[in-house]
Amino acid sequence: MILDHIKKKESEVNVIANSQFQIRKEFTENTIPDFRFINQFGEEVTQAEFDGRMYVADFFFTTCPTICPAMAGNKIRIQEAFKNNSEVLILSHSIDPRSDSIPKLKSYGEDVGALKGKWHLVTGVREEIYEIAKEYYVTAQEDELAKGSFIHDGSFILVDGERHIRGIYDGTDLGSTEVLINDIKSLLEK
């Protein structure tokens, strides 16, 4: 069902690797809906925290044996590039809320170097997390045949201060992450 939604929206997805940033018309018409999750510090995180700010969203789980370590390293690069800019945040959604408790997310955040107030590692109701993944045009679901029992892609989704998706990037690729960082800088200049 998630894959069907993504295939249906395939023409709207702007996956960026080593290309110049471009806003897609489809993204200007769609907005990320309201959400309510809990971060690694036990604090409620809602869309209000991100309104008027750009953020990079992604989906992960703390015991991921495949792509998550590379993604975490690239999120550190993003965090470092905008460490002193309160207009750029990171929002990482756990797709394993049964295992990824608040203390586990906090420990993971400390291990990877997530800064409080800059990088939110969130958990919540599984169905709500999977539903919002669809709004970001990404795959996130349980799959007992997959390594780690979950299937998710390694996308970083750039969302502007008005909740519009501005681009989707390969979060496992350093080059794509550098393009994302440059695109954020370009948007900040506008």
How would you portray this structure in words?
The protein is α/β, with parallel strands linked by helices. The chain has a single domain, classed as Glutaredoxin (3-Layer(aba) Sandwich), CATH 3.40.30. It is built from 6 helices and 10 strands. It has helices at 2-8, 25-29, 68-81, 102-112, 126-135, 174-189; strands at residues 15-16, 36-39, 44-46, 54-60, 88-94, 119-123, 140-142, 150-152, 155-159, 165-170. An 8-stranded mixed β-sheet has the order 1-10-9-4-5-6-2-3, with helices on both faces. Strands 7-8 form a two-stranded antiparallel sheet. Helix 3 (68-81) runs parallel beside helix 6. The longest helix has 16 residues, at 174-189. The model is unreliable at 1-21 (pLDDT under 50). It comes from Aquimarina mytili. Belongs to the SCO1/2 family. This is SCO family protein.
